[in-house]
Amino acid sequence: MKRLYIIRHGKAEDPNFSKRDFDRNLVERGKQDALRIANDIVQNSTFDDNTLVVSSSANRAIETAELMCPTFNYPTDQIKQAVEIYEAHHLDILKVINEVPDHVATLLVFGHNPGLSALVSYLTDDYAELKTANAAYLEFPDNMTFAQLSGQTATLKHVFE
């Protein structure tokens, strides 16, 4: 079974004119929520050499990934950053996912709303509104690759909130 975790970044600084949106950092609550969700996820799953983490390169997303990955025993220096995920339409995020190599069995994608919530709905035909630090866990058949993932081909198994 192929597994996909779609994870929204933790709570970040409020937008203001002194800092670009892309550069906003996590606040303390965002860090705590991210660690709590990571612990919930790791109780329900295992991660191995066939795991890949892809994150938006915006500060708050990469910070969330870097906080969570040690809980999954995933090296933070192996997080693949994809600027294409930042403020992206769900089909643009799907393009990034469709490029994942066939050997990957578990993929974790860190990014932003509304694109992530729309992606979950598109892939599963189930509605899931991902709030900050929430994660959607999806599965799809092992004989299907990430390149073949498209609308209504996955099953929403759980939302970690």
TrEMBL record:
UniProt cross-references to InterPro entries, sorted A to Z: His_Pase_superF_clade-1 (IPR013078), His_PPase_superfam (IPR029033)
One Pfam family from the record: His_Phos_1
Residues of the signal peptide: none
Name assigned to this protein: Phosphohistidine phosphatase
Species this chain originates from: Sphingobacterium corticibacter
